[in-house]
Amino acid sequence: xxxxxxxxxxxxxxxxxxxxxxxxxxxxGAQAVELDVRRCASGELVVNHDAKLPDARAIIxxxxxxLPSYIxxxxxxxxxxxxxxxxIEIKNDSNEPDFDPTEQTARDVVELLKNRGSPRCYLISxxxxxxxxxxxxLWPELKTAWLVVGIDPQDxxxxxxxxxxxxxxxxxxxxxxxxxxxxxxFHSHGLQINxxxxxxPVRISELIDWGVDGICTNVPDIALAVxxxx
Length: 230
Prior knowledge:
Layout: E1 3-7, H1 19-28, E2 32-39, E3 45-47, H2 74-81, E4 85-90, H3 104-116, E5 122-126, H4 129-138, E6 143-148, H5 156-165, E7 170-173, H6 180-188, E8 192-195, H7 201-210, E9 214-217, H8 220-228
Parallel strand pairs: 1-2, 1-9, 2-4, 4-5, 5-6, 6-7, 7-8, 8-9
Antiparallel strand pairs: 2-3
């Protein structure tokens, strides 16, 4: 059955990527939460989508004590998400101020999760392939997914075969480029498809019919209602 992943929590009704948004998603019945993780200047893993704050300060250049109080640490966010499983997107974009080719954030995330116990409740995703490859090397039992905007239809088999051979768990394509063919090809290689970000009930219904494994949405309550109506 298709699972509902609350995008940055229940972000339509609460401030995104906050413990309140995660708790609200849990109250709505979402099976999972998607959140974004970065490192701040004092070394903590914190949850925020953008590399910079509204006042233009870079998170990587700001210590935790000087960050807005609504920005949780990753540990605080995971506590708020329990017992839902969590898709942790590691932000490591070469165009952003916190880009780190050494993948220190990935290493820190794996260390934190190992200290929390079983890897079953977590899925690590990133647009940067090297990031999820690093996670796989550090903890093969931890599920990983590659975030993409889209894939050329001619490359579907090649990409799916390589992703599966490297031990990754899923592909996370943008909903506007997702096709039934893509789902079928990746499923044939044992990979799951979780798409982002869909809030339209009609499109959600179509994706469920196509057999998508997960839908990342700002409106988990609406997505759950669509599933219940099937």
